[in-house]
Design a protein that fits this description.
There is one protein chain. With 238 residues, this protein is mainly alpha-helical. The protein folds into 2 domains: 3-156, Ribonuclease iii, N-terminal Endonuclease Domain, Chain A, CATH 1.10.1520; 163-232, 2-Layer Sandwich (Double Stranded RNA Binding Domain). The protein has helices at 3-16, 23-29, 33-38, 48-69, 75-85, 88-97, 108-112, 119-137, 139-156, 163-175, 214-232, and strands at residues 180-187, 194-201, 205-211. Strands 1-2-3 form a 3-stranded antiparallel β-sheet. Helix 4 crosses helix 8 and helix 4 crosses helix 9. The protein is flat, with a radius of gyration of 20 Å. It starts with a helix and ends in a 6-residue tail after the last helix.
């Protein structure tokens, strides 16, 4: 690592309030694949594997928190709450609170397209940082950070509405079928793609959504489908 990178890593640890024994884990967590593709001699690992692990650690910890905070909730209610919390928008919001985007290593194309502020990229990097702490200090260290960050959000009810879960429940109730999502278009360069997704409900309702990743596009499509359903089936009318 360069001297500047070492200083950046040190600064981010102070913001995170966690000191790594192996700082290379944090360096990898803050390295986007676009940087590795453009600088193979400087970096040979991106954060995607850590993101995969961090997502699993986060889901387990959030599940434990929700069961303790809502002892009377059933499995379906807990699943809906967890989906609303372990979601792109709240994760990106937490990443921004740590100024995480300032410490990412990005390729030139990703940098030029505003990658440091992209919610999907920030959310993924945040999950990678959680995995890095898990590997460096063990489960309890990662769980302690998650409890510190997410307990206030849970207690204040500051969760992102998961439109996909909501539309699935509405579709099951109205049509006894689950929604189907289809990718109908994607455009733009690899580092700045836009996706268009169509949602179909029992071949009676269709809507589309656009996003910078497939998850975001699906959420937007689900949101539009909910509006149609609410028009067809107003509250209090079957």
């Amino acid at each position: 690592m360069s001297e500047k990178r070492i200083m950046d890593i040190h600064q981010f640890q102070k913001i995170l309030d966690y000191h790594f024994r192996d700082v290379s884990l944090l360096d990898t967590a803050l390295t986007h694949r676009s940087y590795v593709n453009e600088n193979p001699a400087e970096a040979d690992h991106d954060n995607e594997r850590l993101e995969f692990l961090g997502d699993a650690v986060l889901e387990l910890c959030i599940s434990d928190l929700l069961m303790k905070h809502f002892p009377a909730y059933q499995e379906g209610q807990l699943s809906q709450l967890r989906a609303a919390i372990v979601n792109e928008q709240p994760l990106a919001g937490l990443a921004k609170s740590f100024h995480l985007g300032d410490y990412l290593l990005l390729g030139k194309g990703e940098e030029a397209s505003g990658g440091r502020t992209k919610p999907s990229l920030l959310a993924d990097a945040f999950e990678a940082v959680i995995a890095a702490i898990f590997l460096d200090g063990g489960f309890e260290k990662a769980a302690a950070l998650i409890r510190r960050l997410f307990t206030p959000l849970i207690e204040e009810g500051c969760t992102y509405r998961d439109y996909k879960t909501t539309v699935q429940q509405m579709s099951q109730h109205a049509f006894k079928e689950t929604p189907r999502y289809t990718l109908i278009h994607e455009y733009g360069p690899d580092h700045d793609k836009t996706f268009e997704i169509q949602i179909s409900l029992a071949e009676r309702i269709q809507a589309t959504g656009i996003g910078k990743n497939k998850k975001e596009a699906e959420q937007r499509a689900a949101e539009q489908a909910i509006r149609i359903l609410e028009t067809l089936f107003p509250a209090g009318r079957e």
